[in-house]
């Protein structure tokens, strides 16, 4: 039995908890998979590195609308994949080597489970088992893809985001089940690269966690690029000579070369024997934490996807900073700030949001001011408008919501090029409690930058609030 001051489970965001401030303390980090966790190895970073070439292909396809002599012919999957993982696998291996070289921190490669309060058993990859106890335990064990219970699935090859980005062969036809973040982003990738994509979503719109106007517009735009089946479920799958047949509940059948399941993720806490440690979860398996990231068990902390209702990397990073501080300063605990958590979908078009949707704000009974401004009604928007390869108004927009009682933003929703960047001043305004009127008029907005679409939406909102 080895005793440590601190044991961290999970070397994703958990790895960032431990730095030189822990010198003098004995620390173990336990990791069962590749060093760096989901974001680096199979999440945010490889997906965005795959999205960049997809955006380039789309831009090249749009060139002729602008008068540019460009054309697009998909992408070379092997080259793209090898560029992405050639780099990321090296970053992961370097991270592991760097961590292993640091004194005072033991990196254990294996799977941990609780055997009692702050007592753990780790099954190492080399077959040995070690028993640990610790004064403090940090649960940074993340989440994993949900695989639905579908008839015939055990008979066919299928993928999740864990492995689809590393496919050996590019699928000419791909079925994407789920129209959330992963389904939206990866359908964009495969469609731009030249695959025939069939996307099956049980709900009535794609990215339905977004404001209604945004998810509707997004669904309309991408439905022109690939086959989107809304209100539809995958009933069963079967093998065919050329691939896999998706049998949908509307009676139709679609044959594909690859099947991607992207219907959500679940926290990994259920694999930790948390009850032995006195760590409580909610009924979705999320570890319950207080505002300081403390679990129900003394000396046990949790962060990121293991405990967050918003399983996003910037949340995990923020949680990790709070846990780090609180481990080192037990008499001066910091509070996790989850008030204004933004999100972005890096599809084409991009989507970004912070705060309440209009439906949520109305449900809360707020006296709401709403303003919209379309990209196409700003100078830079005219330059982009040809981006709409279907000849309709692109529908790119900024939609803002404010509470008339306070004059403050309560929600911001953007759809269009660079939405993930354009949203940042709005996140800042909400975080620092800036009034809409000051934000709109109290600073210069560069002309004719795309940020003018945000400025104009804010001016319209300020007008609404004043009127
Ligand atoms: C395809 C995809 C794209 C994404 N894109 C974005 C994005 O663009 N922006 C964004 O903000 N978020 C994105 N996310 C979400 C983001 O990746 C996660 O929110 C983030 O990585 C969570 O970090 P974490 O440290 O909580 O968990 P992880 O990074 O998953 O780390 C948990 C680690 O714990 C290890 N582990 C689990 N159980 C045990 C055990 N019992 N013993 C030992 N080790 C264990 C796991 O192997 C893993 O390495 C994406 C996710 C996916 C899947
Ligand atoms: N850009 C980003 O920040 C980013 C990108 C990728 C992933 N992520 C993270 O990963 C998490 C998981 O992403 P995800 O896309 O798997 O989940 P999700 O929750 O975003 O979307 C799942 C979708 O699948 C649909 N669905 C559920 N069951 C279905 C079924 N049986 N048939 C058809 N459709 C079904 C749901 O209605 C929903 O639209 C996200 O919640 C997010 O936290 C973030």
UniProtKB/TrEMBL annotation:
Essential cofactor(s): FAD
Gene3D superfamilies: 3.30.390.30, FAD/NAD(P)-binding domain (3.50.50.60)
Enzyme nomenclature, EC number: 1.8.1.15
UniProt keyword annotations, A-Z: Disulfide bond, FAD, Flavoprotein, NADP, Oxidoreductase, Redox-active center
FAD/NAD(P)-binding domain: residues covered: 4-310
Family that this chain belongs to: Belongs to the class-I pyridine nucleotide-disulfide oxidoreductase family.
Domain Pyridine nucleotide-disulphide oxidoreductase dimerisation: 341-457
MF (Gene Ontology): mycothione reductase [NAD(P)H] activity
Protein name as it appears in the record: Mycothione reductase
Species this protein is from: Nocardioides kribbensis
EC primary class: oxidoreductase
């Amino acid at each position: 039995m080895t005793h440590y001051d601190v044991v961290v489970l999970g070397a994703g965001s958990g790895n960032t908890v431990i730095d030189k401030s822990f010198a003098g303390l004995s620390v173990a980090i336990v990791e069962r998979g590749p060093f760096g966790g989901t974001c680096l190895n199979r999440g945010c970073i490889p997906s965005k590195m795959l999205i960049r070439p997809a955006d380039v292909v789309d831009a090249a396809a749009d060139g002729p609308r602008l008068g540019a002599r460009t054309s697009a012919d998909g992408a070379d999957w092997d080259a793209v994949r090898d560029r992405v993982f050639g780099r990321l696998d090296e970053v992961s291996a370097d991270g592991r080597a760097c961590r292993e070289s640091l004194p005072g921190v033991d990196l254990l490669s294996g799977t941990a489970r609780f055997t009692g309060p702050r007592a753990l058993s780790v099954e190492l990859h080399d077959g040995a088992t070690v028993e640990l106890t610790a004064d403090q335990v940090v649960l940074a064990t993340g989440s994993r893809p949900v695989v639905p219970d579908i008839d015939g699935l055990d008979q066919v090859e299928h993928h999740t985001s864990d492995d689809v980005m590393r496919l050996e062969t590019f699928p000419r036809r791909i079925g994407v089940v789920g129209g959330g973040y992963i389904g939206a982003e990866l359908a964009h990738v495969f469609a731009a690269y030249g695959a025939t994509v069939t996307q099956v979503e049980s709900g009535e719109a794609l990215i339905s966690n977004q404001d209604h106007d945004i998810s509707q517009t997004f669904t309309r735009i991408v439905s022109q690029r690939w086959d989107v089946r809304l209100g539809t479920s995958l009933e069963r799958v079967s093998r065919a000579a050329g691939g896999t047949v998706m049998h949908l509940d509307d009676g139709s059948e679609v044959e594909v070369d690859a099947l991607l399941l992207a219907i959500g993720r679940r926290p990994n806490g259920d694999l930790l024997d948390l009850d032995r440690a006195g760590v409580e979860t909610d009924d979705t398996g999320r570890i319950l934490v207080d505002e300081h990231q403390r679990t129900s068990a003394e000396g046990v902390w949790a962060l990121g996807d293991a405990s967050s209702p918003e399983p996003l990397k910037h949340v995990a990073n923020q949680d990790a900073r709070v846990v780090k501080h609180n481990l080192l300063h037990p008499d001066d605990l910091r509070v996790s700030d989850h008030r204004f958590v933004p999100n972005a979908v890096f599809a084409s078009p991009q989507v970004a949001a912070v705060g309440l949707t209009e439906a949520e704000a109305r449900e809360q009974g707020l006296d709401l001011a709403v303003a919209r401004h379309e990209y196409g009604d700003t100078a830079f928007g005219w330059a982009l408008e040809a981006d709409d390869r279907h000849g309709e108004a692109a529908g790119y927009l900024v939609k803002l919501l404010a509470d008339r009682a306070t004059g403050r933003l309560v929600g911001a929703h953007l759809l269009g090029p660079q939405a993930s960047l354009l949203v940042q001043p709005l996140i800042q305004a909400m975080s620092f409690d800036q009034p809409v009127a000051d934000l709109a008029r109290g600073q210069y907005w560069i002309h004719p930058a795309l940020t003018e679409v945000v400025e104009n939406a804010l001016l319209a909102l300020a007008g609404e609030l004043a009127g």
